[in-house]
Amino acid sequence: MRERLHRILDGIDPEWGRRYTLSMHALIVLAVASYVISTLPDLPPATGTALYRFELTVVGIFAADYALRLYAAPRRLGYVFSFWGIVDLLAFLPALLLPGAEMVAARILRLIQLARILKLMRVAHAVDNLVEVLTEIREQLVVFLVMTLFLLILASIGIYHFEHQAQPELFRSVPHAMWWAVATLSTVGYGDIYPVTAGGRIFTGLVLLIGLGVIAVPTALISAALVSKTHKSPLKKETKG
User: Fold this and answer.
1) Given CB 3.0 to 4.6 Å as the disulfide criterion, which of 9, 79, 166, 189 pairs with 73?
2) Mind listing the pLDDT tens digit for each residue in 91-106?
3) Assigned CATH for 2-122
């Protein structure tokens, strides 16, 4: 019974698997559409009430889906801490923990349920590969994150030193300067806050050069790990064969 239920929920049961999967994906799309409609201004009260009731229904269905998947999982603890298990949990748990007006946050979190549609398009293995790769290089990513935070603080202190007197309203303190540091290190550069002194502009140029590395290093790490995993996969298949 559990094995059959597991096949149905995973969409591999020949009779009911695909039907259940399509139904859940349709529900996910409808849930997202419901959230989009609920943000419209001057929504009629009757429509708002209907959307709220639909919201409660969706939360109940997602909770039941999670309970069934947990019951049918061969390794329940493994499912709970797996990528898709966390996605399924976030599909309904925030709505239970964030009642009332805070349901908006729950709806936003539940948008990640759209990731389940990837399974229908048969590319979920790509997501699994990416999760495995990020797990493999997590130590390097943590070190890089710490270095980036350190650079962020240094950049904020530096620009505050150069621009505080010239622009006291924009660079009132080091924490206020952090927005500039984030925009500059990420090479986004919104333009809402920028240096006007010669020293500040030179310093900004240096930070921009460092920012290129901030973008390039994690990209290179992830790309190299993905390429390595891609090369290993055929070898595993040949070994199994």
Assistant:
1) 79
2) 777 777 766 555 555 5
3) 1.20.120
